[in-house]
Backbone:
Protein backbone atom coordinates (compact mmCIF):
# COMPACT_ATOMS: atom_id res chain seq x y z
CA UNK A 1 0.00 0.00 0.00
CA UNK A 2 2.85 2.34 0.87
CA UNK A 3 4.54 1.49 -2.42
CA UNK A 4 1.34 2.28 -4.26
CA UNK A 5 1.07 5.63 -2.52
CA UNK A 6 4.68 6.31 -3.37
CA UNK A 7 4.01 5.60 -7.04
CA UNK A 8 0.97 7.86 -7.01
CA UNK A 9 2.97 10.62 -5.36
CA UNK A 10 5.75 10.22 -7.90
CA UNK A 11 3.27 10.36 -10.77
CA UNK A 12 1.64 13.45 -9.32
CA UNK A 13 5.04 15.13 -8.97
CA UNK A 14 5.94 14.29 -12.54
CA UNK A 15 2.61 15.62 -13.78
CA UNK A 16 3.06 18.85 -11.84
CA UNK A 17 6.54 19.32 -13.28
CA UNK A 18 5.21 18.78 -16.80
CA UNK A 19 2.40 21.25 -16.22
CA UNK A 20 4.89 23.87 -15.11
CA UNK A 21 7.04 23.23 -18.19
CA UNK A 22 4.20 23.23 -20.73
CA UNK A 23 3.74 27.03 -21.08
CA UNK A 24 7.40 27.70 -21.85
CA UNK A 25 7.62 24.68 -24.11
CA UNK A 26 4.52 25.80 -25.96
CA UNK A 27 5.97 29.30 -26.33
CA UNK A 28 9.23 27.95 -27.72
CA UNK A 29 7.32 25.68 -30.05
CA UNK A 30 5.18 28.58 -31.34
CA UNK A 31 8.25 30.70 -31.91
CA UNK A 32 10.00 27.85 -33.70
CA UNK A 33 6.89 27.22 -35.80
CA UNK A 34 6.69 30.89 -36.75
CA UNK A 35 10.34 30.92 -37.72
CA UNK A 36 9.92 27.81 -39.83
CA UNK A 37 6.87 29.31 -41.52
CA UNK A 38 8.73 32.55 -42.22
CA UNK A 39 11.67 30.61 -43.59
CA UNK A 40 9.43 28.65 -45.96
CA UNK A 41 7.71 31.83 -47.07
CA UNK A 42 11.05 33.54 -47.55
CA UNK A 43 12.27 30.67 -49.71
CA UNK A 44 9.26 31.22 -51.97
CA UNK A 45 9.54 35.01 -52.04
CA UNK A 46 13.29 35.39 -52.40
CA UNK A 47 13.66 34.34 -56.07
CA UNK A 48 10.86 36.61 -57.27
CA UNK A 49 11.29 39.67 -55.10
CA UNK A 50 15.07 39.81 -55.35
CA UNK A 51 15.37 38.34 -58.83
CA UNK A 52 12.94 40.74 -60.49
CA UNK A 53 15.49 43.56 -60.29
CA UNK A 54 18.81 41.73 -60.08
CA UNK A 55 20.08 38.18 -59.92
CA UNK A 56 19.07 36.86 -56.52
CA UNK A 57 22.16 36.57 -54.37
CA UNK A 58 22.42 33.47 -52.17
CA UNK A 59 22.30 33.74 -48.40
CA UNK A 60 25.77 32.27 -48.03
CA UNK A 61 27.29 35.42 -49.53
CA UNK A 62 26.86 37.32 -46.28
CA UNK A 63 26.66 36.67 -42.58
CA UNK A 64 23.34 36.75 -40.73
CA UNK A 65 24.16 40.15 -39.22
CA UNK A 66 25.06 41.55 -42.65
CA UNK A 67 21.73 40.35 -44.04
CA UNK A 68 20.03 42.31 -41.25
CA UNK A 69 21.67 45.45 -42.66
CA UNK A 70 21.04 44.63 -46.31
CA UNK A 71 17.39 43.71 -45.77
CA UNK A 72 16.66 46.93 -43.93
CA UNK A 73 18.13 48.76 -46.92
CA UNK A 74 16.14 46.67 -49.40
CA UNK A 75 12.93 47.01 -47.45
CA UNK A 76 13.11 50.74 -48.04
CA UNK A 77 14.47 50.64 -51.58
CA UNK A 78 11.97 48.09 -52.89
CA UNK A 79 8.95 49.21 -50.82
CA UNK A 80 8.66 45.76 -49.28
CA UNK A 81 5.90 45.06 -46.77
CA UNK A 82 7.35 44.22 -43.36
CA UNK A 83 6.16 40.61 -43.56
CA UNK A 84 7.90 40.08 -46.91
CA UNK A 85 11.14 41.68 -45.75
CA UNK A 86 11.11 39.62 -42.55
CA UNK A 87 10.47 36.35 -44.39
CA UNK A 88 13.25 36.94 -46.90
CA UNK A 89 15.60 37.99 -44.11
CA UNK A 90 14.81 34.81 -42.19
CA UNK A 91 15.53 32.73 -45.26
CA UNK A 92 18.81 34.45 -46.10
CA UNK A 93 20.06 34.38 -42.51
CA UNK A 94 19.57 30.61 -42.36
CA UNK A 95 21.65 29.86 -45.46
CA UNK B 1 32.36 -55.18 36.90
CA UNK B 2 29.31 -54.13 38.94
CA UNK B 3 29.95 -50.49 38.55
CA UNK B 4 30.34 -50.82 34.86
CA UNK B 5 27.34 -53.20 34.86
CA UNK B 6 25.21 -50.78 36.86
CA UNK B 7 26.45 -47.94 34.86
CA UNK B 8 25.90 -49.85 31.78
CA UNK B 9 22.42 -50.71 32.81
CA UNK B 10 21.62 -47.25 34.03
CA UNK B 11 23.21 -45.50 30.92
CA UNK B 12 21.89 -47.72 28.22
CA UNK B 13 18.35 -47.25 26.75
CA UNK B 14 16.22 -49.80 25.22
CA UNK B 15 15.76 -49.70 21.46
CA UNK B 16 12.19 -48.37 21.76
CA UNK B 17 13.38 -45.57 23.98
CA UNK B 18 16.09 -44.73 21.50
CA UNK B 19 13.58 -44.68 18.74
CA UNK B 20 11.33 -42.28 20.68
CA UNK B 21 14.28 -40.10 21.44
CA UNK B 22 15.23 -39.86 17.75
CA UNK B 23 11.65 -39.00 16.91
CA UNK B 24 11.60 -36.25 19.50
CA UNK B 25 14.93 -34.96 18.22
CA UNK B 26 13.67 -34.87 14.65
CA UNK B 27 10.56 -33.02 15.73
CA UNK B 28 12.63 -30.60 17.71
CA UNK B 29 14.91 -30.03 14.71
CA UNK B 30 11.92 -29.48 12.45
CA UNK B 31 10.44 -27.04 14.92
CA UNK B 32 13.77 -25.33 15.27
CA UNK B 33 14.17 -25.16 11.53
CA UNK B 34 10.65 -23.82 11.09
CA UNK B 35 11.34 -21.16 13.66
CA UNK B 36 14.49 -20.23 11.87
CA UNK B 37 12.64 -19.92 8.54
CA UNK B 38 9.94 -17.88 10.16
CA UNK B 39 12.52 -15.67 11.77
CA UNK B 40 14.29 -15.28 8.38
CA UNK B 41 11.07 -14.22 6.56
CA UNK B 42 10.02 -11.67 9.11
CA UNK B 43 13.20 -9.53 8.98
CA UNK B 44 12.98 -9.31 5.09
CA UNK B 45 9.57 -7.62 5.12
CA UNK B 46 10.68 -5.24 7.80
CA UNK B 47 13.74 -4.38 5.78
CA UNK B 48 11.63 -3.61 2.68
CA UNK B 49 9.37 -1.38 4.70
CA UNK B 50 12.40 0.36 6.13
CA UNK B 51 13.80 0.87 2.63
CA UNK B 52 10.50 2.34 1.46
CA UNK B 53 10.55 4.67 4.43
CA UNK B 54 14.12 5.59 3.56
CA UNK B 55 13.12 6.30 -0.07
CA UNK B 56 10.28 8.46 1.14
CA UNK B 57 12.62 10.40 3.32
CA UNK B 58 15.07 10.72 0.46
CA UNK B 59 12.31 11.92 -1.90
CA UNK B 60 11.22 14.48 0.65
CA UNK B 61 14.82 15.57 1.02
CA UNK B 62 15.26 15.85 -2.73
CA UNK B 63 12.13 17.93 -3.05
CA UNK B 64 13.34 20.22 -0.31
CA UNK B 65 16.74 20.57 -1.96
CA UNK B 66 15.12 21.17 -5.36
CA UNK B 67 12.98 23.91 -3.87
CA UNK B 68 16.03 25.50 -2.28
CA UNK B 69 17.98 25.27 -5.54
CA UNK B 70 15.14 26.89 -7.44
CA UNK B 71 15.11 29.75 -4.99
CA UNK B 72 18.88 30.09 -5.31
CA UNK B 73 18.60 30.15 -9.12
CA UNK B 74 15.92 32.84 -8.90
CA UNK B 75 18.13 34.90 -6.61
CA UNK B 76 21.09 34.45 -8.97
CA UNK B 77 18.93 35.48 -11.92
CA UNK B 78 17.94 38.66 -10.13
CA UNK B 79 21.57 39.33 -9.31
CA UNK B 80 22.58 38.88 -12.98
CA UNK B 81 19.81 41.21 -14.11
CA UNK B 82 20.90 43.82 -11.61
CA UNK B 83 24.48 43.52 -12.80
CA UNK B 84 23.45 43.83 -16.43
CA UNK B 85 21.40 46.89 -15.66
CA UNK B 86 24.29 48.44 -13.77
CA UNK B 87 26.68 47.59 -16.60
CA UNK B 88 24.38 49.21 -19.15
CA UNK B 89 24.17 52.36 -17.06
CA UNK B 90 27.87 52.43 -16.33
CA UNK B 91 30.20 54.18 -18.80
CA UNK B 92 32.27 51.84 -20.97
CA UNK B 93 35.57 50.73 -19.53
CA UNK B 94 37.55 52.77 -22.03
CA UNK B 95 35.67 55.93 -21.13
CA UNK B 96 36.08 55.27 -17.44
CA UNK B 97 39.77 54.66 -17.95
CA UNK B 98 40.14 57.82 -19.98
CA UNK B 99 38.22 59.82 -17.39
CA UNK B 100 40.37 58.46 -14.65
CA UNK B 101 43.49 59.40 -16.58
CA UNK B 102 44.50 55.81 -16.93
CA UNK B 103 46.14 54.37 -19.95
CA UNK B 104 43.59 52.76 -22.26
CA UNK B 105 44.54 49.23 -23.07
CA UNK B 106 43.99 47.82 -26.56
CA UNK B 107 41.42 45.32 -25.35
CA UNK B 108 39.44 48.03 -23.56
CA UNK B 109 39.45 50.15 -26.71
CA UNK B 110 38.33 47.23 -28.87
CA UNK B 111 35.58 46.44 -26.40
CA UNK B 112 34.43 50.06 -26.37
CA UNK B 113 34.41 50.19 -30.18
CA UNK B 114 32.46 46.94 -30.35
CA UNK B 115 29.88 48.33 -27.96
CA UNK B 116 29.70 51.56 -29.96
CA UNK B 117 29.53 50.06 -33.45
CA UNK B 118 27.72 46.85 -32.63
CA UNK B 119 28.26 43.60 -34.49
CA UNK B 120 28.26 44.12 -38.27
CA UNK B 121 26.03 47.14 -38.16
CA UNK B 122 28.22 48.96 -40.66
CA UNK B 123 28.41 47.43 -44.10
CA UNK B 124 30.42 48.60 -47.07
CA UNK B 125 28.81 47.44 -50.26
CA UNK B 126 28.41 48.86 -53.77
CA UNK B 127 29.62 48.11 -57.23
CA UNK B 128 32.36 48.72 -59.74
CA UNK B 129 32.76 48.31 -63.46
CA UNK B 130 35.44 48.29 -66.14
CA UNK B 131 34.21 49.11 -69.65
CA UNK B 132 35.45 49.36 -73.18
CA UNK B 133 33.60 51.47 -75.76
CA UNK B 134 34.03 51.74 -79.49
CA UNK B 135 32.02 54.51 -81.14
CA UNK B 136 32.01 54.74 -84.91
CA UNK B 137 30.70 58.29 -85.32
CA UNK B 138 32.93 59.74 -82.63
CA UNK B 139 35.87 57.66 -83.84
CA UNK B 140 36.60 56.82 -80.21
CA UNK B 141 37.99 53.66 -78.77
CA UNK B 142 38.50 53.79 -75.03
CA UNK B 143 38.50 52.05 -71.67
CA UNK B 144 36.38 53.43 -68.83
CA UNK B 145 35.98 52.64 -65.14
CA UNK B 146 33.44 53.39 -62.42
CA UNK B 147 33.59 52.79 -58.70
CA UNK B 148 30.49 53.30 -56.56
CA UNK B 149 30.85 52.39 -52.88
CA UNK B 150 27.66 52.28 -50.83
CA UNK B 151 27.82 52.78 -47.08
CA UNK B 152 25.11 51.21 -44.96
CA UNK B 153 24.87 51.79 -41.24
CA UNK B 154 22.07 50.11 -39.33
CA UNK B 155 21.56 51.58 -35.91
CA UNK B 156 18.75 49.20 -35.03
CA UNK B 157 15.80 47.47 -36.68
CA UNK B 158 14.15 50.76 -37.56
CA UNK B 159 16.96 53.23 -38.23
CA UNK B 160 19.54 53.26 -40.98
CA UNK B 161 21.82 55.63 -42.84
CA UNK B 162 22.80 54.86 -46.39
CA UNK B 163 24.90 56.72 -48.89
CA UNK B 164 26.52 56.16 -52.25
CA UNK B 165 29.44 57.94 -53.84
CA UNK B 166 30.06 57.43 -57.52
CA UNK B 167 33.52 58.03 -58.94
CA UNK B 168 33.89 58.20 -62.69
CA UNK B 169 36.82 59.00 -64.96
CA UNK B 170 36.30 62.04 -67.15
CA UNK B 171 37.53 62.93 -70.63
CA UNK B 172 39.79 65.67 -69.33
CA UNK B 173 41.71 63.30 -67.08
CA UNK B 174 39.91 64.25 -63.91
CA UNK B 175 37.83 62.02 -61.69
CA UNK B 176 34.23 63.03 -61.16
CA UNK B 177 33.02 62.47 -57.63
CA UNK B 178 29.29 62.62 -57.10
CA UNK B 179 27.16 62.02 -54.07
CA UNK B 180 24.49 59.82 -55.57
CA UNK B 181 22.45 59.69 -52.41
CA UNK B 182 22.79 60.17 -48.68
CA UNK B 183 19.66 59.44 -46.72
CA UNK B 184 18.32 58.41 -43.35
CA UNK B 185 15.68 55.67 -43.34
CA UNK B 186 13.39 55.58 -40.33
CA UNK B 187 10.91 52.71 -40.23
CA UNK B 188 7.77 54.19 -38.69
CA UNK B 189 5.65 51.03 -38.74
CA UNK B 190 5.07 47.90 -40.82
CA UNK B 191 3.74 49.95 -43.71
CA UNK B 192 5.74 53.15 -43.86
CA UNK B 193 9.30 54.40 -43.71
CA UNK B 194 10.38 58.02 -43.51
CA UNK B 195 13.34 58.85 -45.75
CA UNK B 196 15.16 62.17 -45.55
CA UNK B 197 18.22 63.55 -47.30
CA UNK B 198 19.44 63.29 -50.85
CA UNK B 199 17.72 60.36 -52.50
CA UNK B 200 17.46 58.75 -55.91
CA UNK B 201 14.31 60.01 -57.60
CA UNK B 202 11.56 57.44 -56.96
CA UNK B 203 10.28 57.62 -60.51
CA UNK B 204 10.01 54.54 -62.70
CA UNK B 205 12.33 51.69 -61.89
CA UNK B 206 15.62 52.35 -63.64
CA UNK B 207 16.89 55.17 -61.42
CA UNK B 208 16.32 53.54 -58.08
CA UNK B 209 16.71 49.87 -58.87
CA UNK B 210 18.38 49.13 -62.17
CA UNK B 211 21.13 51.67 -62.81
CA UNK B 212 24.06 49.94 -61.03
CA UNK B 213 26.23 48.23 -63.64
CA UNK B 214 25.97 44.80 -62.00
CA UNK B 215 22.16 45.02 -62.21
CA UNK B 216 21.66 46.71 -65.58
CA UNK B 217 21.74 43.93 -68.15
CA UNK B 218 23.17 46.20 -70.82
CA UNK B 219 26.35 48.23 -70.57
CA UNK B 220 24.54 51.38 -71.71
CA UNK B 221 21.52 53.10 -70.17
CA UNK B 222 18.20 53.68 -71.93
CA UNK B 223 18.13 56.98 -73.86
CA UNK B 224 15.74 58.62 -71.40
CA UNK B 225 18.19 58.12 -68.54
CA UNK B 226 21.48 59.07 -70.11
CA UNK B 227 23.63 61.43 -68.14
CA UNK B 228 23.28 65.03 -69.22
CA UNK B 229 20.39 64.29 -71.54
CA UNK B 230 18.04 62.40 -69.31
CA UNK B 231 14.40 63.23 -69.23
CA UNK B 232 14.42 63.43 -65.42
CA UNK B 233 16.85 64.44 -62.70
CA UNK B 234 18.51 61.40 -61.16
CA UNK B 235 18.22 62.51 -57.55
CA UNK B 236 16.45 65.04 -55.33
CA UNK B 237 16.86 66.60 -51.91
CA UNK B 238 13.94 66.33 -49.54
CA UNK B 239 11.89 63.76 -47.69
CA UNK B 240 9.76 60.75 -48.55
CA UNK B 241 7.29 58.46 -46.91
CA UNK B 242 7.23 55.05 -48.54
CA UNK B 243 6.35 51.47 -47.89
CA UNK B 244 4.48 48.40 -48.95
CA UNK B 245 1.16 46.79 -48.08
CA UNK B 246 0.16 43.16 -48.54
CA UNK B 247 -2.85 42.86 -50.81
CA UNK B 248 -3.82 39.76 -48.89
CA UNK B 249 -5.18 37.50 -51.59
CA UNK B 250 -2.04 35.50 -52.28
CA UNK B 251 1.61 35.16 -51.44
CA UNK B 252 3.63 37.83 -53.18
CA UNK B 253 0.80 40.24 -53.93
CA UNK B 254 1.40 43.70 -52.61
CA UNK B 255 1.27 47.38 -53.39
CA UNK B 256 4.14 49.78 -52.89
CA UNK B 257 3.90 53.54 -52.58
CA UNK B 258 6.14 56.58 -52.27
CA UNK B 259 5.13 60.18 -51.68
CA UNK B 260 7.81 62.82 -51.49
CA UNK B 261 8.67 66.48 -51.33
CA UNK B 262 11.87 67.92 -52.77
CA UNK B 263 13.70 71.10 -53.62
CA UNK B 264 12.53 70.56 -57.17
CA UNK B 265 14.02 70.54 -60.66
CA UNK B 266 16.64 73.01 -61.82
CA UNK B 267 18.03 73.57 -65.27
CA UNK B 268 21.38 74.68 -66.58
CA UNK B 269 19.71 77.64 -68.33
CA UNK B 270 16.30 79.13 -69.09
CA UNK B 271 16.47 77.94 -72.68
CA UNK B 272 14.41 75.06 -73.92
CA UNK B 273 16.33 71.80 -74.12
CA UNK B 274 18.70 72.71 -71.30
CA UNK B 275 19.87 69.76 -69.20
CA UNK B 276 19.05 69.31 -65.51
CA UNK B 277 21.53 70.34 -62.82
CA UNK B 278 21.47 69.56 -59.11
CA UNK B 279 19.22 71.83 -57.06
CA UNK B 280 21.24 71.52 -53.87
CA UNK B 281 20.02 74.85 -52.51
CA UNK B 282 16.52 75.55 -53.67
CA UNK B 283 16.40 78.37 -56.19
CA UNK B 284 12.85 79.32 -55.26
CA UNK B 285 10.51 79.13 -52.30
CA UNK B 286 8.39 76.40 -53.80
CA UNK B 287 8.77 72.73 -53.28
CA UNK B 288 8.24 69.94 -55.74
CA UNK B 289 5.96 67.01 -54.99
CA UNK B 290 5.94 63.52 -56.33
CA UNK B 291 4.33 60.15 -55.87
CA UNK B 292 4.73 56.62 -57.09
CA UNK B 293 2.41 53.64 -56.84
CA UNK B 294 3.28 50.11 -57.92
CA UNK B 295 1.34 46.88 -57.82
CA UNK B 296 2.33 43.22 -57.75
CA UNK B 297 -0.98 41.56 -58.58
CA UNK B 298 -0.01 37.94 -59.43
CA UNK B 299 0.21 35.51 -56.50
CA UNK B 300 3.25 33.27 -56.68
CA UNK B 301 1.19 30.12 -56.24
CA UNK B 302 -0.64 30.81 -59.51
CA UNK B 303 2.71 30.06 -61.18
CA UNK B 304 1.77 32.55 -63.87
CA UNK B 305 4.96 34.59 -63.61
CA UNK B 306 5.81 37.78 -61.83
CA UNK B 307 4.03 40.96 -62.85
CA UNK B 308 4.60 44.47 -61.66
CA UNK B 309 3.30 47.75 -63.01
CA UNK B 310 3.66 51.22 -61.66
CA UNK B 311 2.93 54.86 -62.22
CA UNK B 312 4.94 57.89 -61.15
CA UNK B 313 4.65 61.65 -61.17
CA UNK B 314 6.93 64.53 -60.19
CA UNK B 315 5.93 68.19 -60.34
CA UNK B 316 7.35 71.50 -59.19
CA UNK B 317 8.28 75.05 -60.09
CA UNK B 318 11.65 75.19 -61.78
CA UNK B 319 12.47 78.90 -62.16
CA UNK B 320 13.82 81.38 -59.64
CA UNK B 321 10.62 83.38 -59.61
CA UNK B 322 8.67 80.24 -58.77
CA UNK B 323 6.17 80.74 -61.58
CA UNK B 324 6.95 78.11 -64.19
CA UNK B 325 5.89 74.51 -63.72
CA UNK B 326 7.70 71.33 -64.52
CA UNK B 327 5.29 68.41 -64.69
CA UNK B 328 5.90 64.78 -65.48
CA UNK B 329 4.27 61.40 -65.39
CA UNK B 330 5.32 57.92 -66.31
CA UNK B 331 4.29 54.30 -66.50
CA UNK B 332 6.48 51.27 -66.09
CA UNK B 333 6.03 47.53 -66.04
CA UNK B 334 7.74 44.19 -65.71
CA UNK B 335 6.71 40.68 -66.61
CA UNK B 336 9.01 37.86 -65.66
CA UNK B 337 8.38 34.20 -66.33
CA UNK B 338 11.02 31.57 -65.80
CA UNK B 339 14.04 32.59 -67.93
CA UNK B 340 12.19 35.31 -69.84
CA UNK B 341 11.86 38.91 -68.74
CA UNK B 342 10.18 41.89 -70.36
CA UNK B 343 10.28 45.38 -68.91
CA UNK B 344 9.73 48.91 -70.10
CA UNK B 345 9.03 52.50 -69.17
CA UNK B 346 7.34 55.49 -70.70
CA UNK B 347 7.88 59.02 -69.42
CA UNK B 348 6.40 62.31 -70.50
CA UNK B 349 7.54 65.69 -69.21
CA UNK B 350 6.50 69.27 -69.76
CA UNK B 351 8.46 72.33 -68.77
CA UNK B 352 6.59 75.61 -69.05
CA UNK B 353 8.59 78.37 -70.71
CA UNK B 354 8.01 82.07 -71.29
CA UNK B 355 6.14 82.48 -74.50
CA UNK B 356 3.69 80.29 -76.31
CA UNK B 357 5.89 77.23 -76.63
CA UNK B 358 6.87 74.82 -73.90
CA UNK B 359 9.68 72.34 -73.57
CA UNK B 360 8.08 68.95 -74.14
CA UNK B 361 10.04 65.74 -73.84
CA UNK B 362 9.00 62.17 -73.73
CA UNK B 363 10.57 58.83 -74.34
CA UNK B 364 10.31 55.15 -73.70
CA UNK B 365 12.15 51.88 -73.88
CA UNK B 366 11.28 48.21 -73.97
CA UNK B 367 13.79 45.58 -72.95
CA UNK B 368 13.54 41.81 -73.28
CA UNK B 369 15.99 39.25 -71.98
CA UNK B 370 16.22 35.50 -72.01
CA UNK B 371 18.57 33.39 -69.94
CA UNK B 372 19.76 30.34 -71.87
CA UNK B 373 19.74 28.12 -68.80
CA UNK B 374 17.13 25.75 -70.19
CA UNK B 375 18.66 25.55 -73.65
CA UNK B 376 22.37 25.11 -73.11
CA UNK B 377 24.46 22.86 -70.89
CA UNK B 378 26.75 24.17 -68.18
CA UNK B 379 28.73 26.42 -68.29
CA UNK B 380 26.88 28.06 -71.22
CA UNK B 381 23.62 28.05 -69.24
CA UNK B 382 24.82 31.28 -67.64
CA UNK B 383 24.49 33.18 -70.90
CA UNK B 384 21.67 35.68 -71.26
CA UNK B 385 20.49 37.42 -74.39
CA UNK B 386 19.25 41.00 -74.06
CA UNK B 387 17.57 43.29 -76.56
CA UNK B 388 16.31 46.83 -76.07
CA UNK B 389 14.61 49.43 -78.19
CA UNK B 390 14.59 53.04 -77.00
CA UNK B 391 13.56 56.37 -78.38
CA UNK B 392 13.00 59.95 -77.35
CA UNK B 393 10.96 62.81 -78.71
CA UNK B 394 12.05 66.25 -77.60
CA UNK B 395 10.21 69.37 -78.68
CA UNK B 396 11.13 72.84 -77.53
CA UNK B 397 11.35 76.36 -79.02
CA UNK B 398 14.12 77.02 -81.46
CA UNK B 399 17.17 78.76 -80.13
CA UNK B 400 18.53 81.75 -81.98
CA UNK B 401 21.34 79.70 -83.41
CA UNK B 402 19.12 76.86 -84.47
CA UNK B 403 17.71 77.09 -87.89
CA UNK B 404 15.07 74.42 -88.32
CA UNK B 405 11.53 75.33 -87.47
CA UNK B 406 8.43 73.26 -87.70
CA UNK B 407 5.17 74.93 -86.80
CA UNK B 408 6.84 76.90 -84.06
CA UNK B 409 8.67 73.90 -82.67
CA UNK B 410 12.03 72.48 -83.41
CA UNK B 411 12.24 68.77 -83.02
CA UNK B 412 15.61 68.32 -81.49
CA UNK B 413 17.24 65.91 -79.20
CA UNK B 414 20.68 65.19 -77.98
CA UNK B 415 22.17 61.81 -78.55
CA UNK B 416 24.57 60.75 -75.90
CA UNK B 417 27.16 58.10 -76.32
CA UNK B 418 27.08 55.74 -73.42
CA UNK B 419 26.21 58.38 -70.92
CA UNK B 420 28.64 61.00 -72.23
CA UNK B 421 27.18 63.92 -74.05
CA UNK B 422 28.48 64.10 -77.59
CA UNK B 423 27.04 67.54 -78.13
CA UNK B 424 25.52 66.50 -81.39
CA UNK B 425 21.94 67.63 -81.87
CA UNK B 426 19.75 65.18 -83.70
CA UNK B 427 16.11 64.77 -84.50
CA UNK B 428 14.34 62.15 -82.43
CA UNK B 429 17.02 59.69 -81.38
CA UNK B 430 16.26 56.00 -81.55
CA UNK B 431 18.45 53.10 -80.62
CA UNK B 432 18.47 49.34 -80.91
CA UNK B 433 20.74 47.47 -78.50
CA UNK B 434 21.62 43.81 -78.55
CA UNK B 435 23.65 42.28 -75.73
CA UNK B 436 25.01 38.99 -74.51
CA UNK B 437 25.74 38.58 -70.80
CA UNK B 438 27.64 35.87 -69.03
CA UNK B 439 26.77 35.65 -65.33
CA UNK B 440 29.90 34.39 -63.61
CA UNK B 441 28.12 34.75 -60.29
CA UNK B 442 24.80 36.46 -59.48
CA UNK B 443 26.69 39.70 -58.87
CA UNK B 444 29.55 39.42 -61.36
CA UNK B 445 28.74 39.74 -65.04
CA UNK B 446 30.58 40.07 -68.31
CA UNK B 447 28.65 41.90 -71.05
CA UNK B 448 29.07 42.47 -74.73
CA UNK B 449 26.69 44.93 -76.42
CA UNK B 450 26.13 46.25 -79.88
CA UNK B 451 24.18 49.52 -80.33
CA UNK B 452 22.66 50.71 -83.57
CA UNK B 453 21.68 54.38 -83.38
CA UNK B 454 19.01 55.24 -85.93
CA UNK B 455 18.01 58.86 -85.25
CA UNK B 456 15.22 60.13 -87.44
CA UNK B 457 16.53 62.05 -90.41
CA UNK B 458 20.18 61.78 -89.36
CA UNK B 459 23.08 59.46 -90.11
CA UNK B 460 23.18 56.23 -88.22
CA UNK B 461 25.89 55.18 -85.82
CA UNK B 462 27.35 51.96 -84.42
CA UNK B 463 28.77 51.29 -80.99
CA UNK B 464 30.26 48.31 -79.23
CA UNK B 465 30.50 47.89 -75.48
CA UNK B 466 32.37 45.35 -73.41
CA UNK B 467 31.94 45.51 -69.67
CA UNK B 468 32.84 43.64 -66.53
CA UNK B 469 30.65 44.63 -63.59
CA UNK B 470 30.77 43.46 -60.02
CA UNK B 471 28.40 44.09 -57.13
CA UNK B 472 29.99 43.66 -53.74
Residues:
Amino acid sequence: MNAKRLRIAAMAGLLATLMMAVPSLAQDETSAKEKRARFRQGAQLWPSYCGSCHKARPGGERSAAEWDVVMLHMRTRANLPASVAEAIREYLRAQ
Amino acid sequence: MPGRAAGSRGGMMSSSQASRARSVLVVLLIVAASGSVARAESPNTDQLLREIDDLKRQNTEFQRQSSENRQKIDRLGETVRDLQAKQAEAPPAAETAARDGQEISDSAMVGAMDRYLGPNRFLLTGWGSARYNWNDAENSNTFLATFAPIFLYRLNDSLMFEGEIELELEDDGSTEVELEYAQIDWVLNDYSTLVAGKYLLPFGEFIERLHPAWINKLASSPLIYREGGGILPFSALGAQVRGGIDLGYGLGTHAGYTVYVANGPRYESDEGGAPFVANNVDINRNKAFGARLEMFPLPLDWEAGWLRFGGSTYNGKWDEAGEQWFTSWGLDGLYWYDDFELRGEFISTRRALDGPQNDLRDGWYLQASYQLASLLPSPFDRLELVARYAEMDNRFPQHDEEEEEDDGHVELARVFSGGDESGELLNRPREISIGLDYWITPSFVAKVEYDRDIPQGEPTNNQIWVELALGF
